[in-house]
Amino acid sequence: MSSLLSPPDAATPRGPTPPAPRLSATELGELLRSHADVRVLDVRTPGEFETAHISGAYNIPLDELPADEEEVEVCDPQ
């Protein structure tokens, strides 16, 4: 799973970000336990987030994320 945390290669030109792979709840739990620096961004509405969320996750609703990808740090999931 360490490849999920690998930063994009600076020499690689930026293009469209490929879809992130899906993680099972077990895989996510293992990732969070083994990498303290991993943060979970929950893009649901504040009401959905308040109902239930992953401990330690932070919430920015999808419609409030910056339109410019440069403003959001993207980890290459590959």
Description:
The protein has two helices and two strands. It starts with 24 loop residues before the first helix and ends in a 19-residue tail after the last strand. It is globular. Helix 2 (46-51) links the parallel strand 1 and strand 2 (58-59). It has 78 residues and is mainly alpha-helical.
* Biggest beta-sheet profile: 2 strands, parallel
Radius of gyration: 14 Å
H and E order: HEHE
Uncertain runs are: 1-7
**What fraction of residues sit in β-strands?**
5-15%
Backbone shape: globular
Assembly type of the shown chains? single chain
Let me know the number of strands.
2
Helicity range:
10-25%
What structural class is derived from the secondary structure elements? Answer: mainly alpha
User: Which whole number gives the mean pLDDT?
Assistant: 76
- Strands side by side in the biggest sheet: 1-2
Total number of helices = 2
Determine the N-to-C terminus distance.
10 Å
Write the layout of secondary structure elements.
Blueprint: H1 25-34, E1 41-42, H2 46-51, E2 58-59
Parallel strand pairs: 1-2
Feature tags:
21% helix, mainly alpha, globular, 78 residues, 2 helices
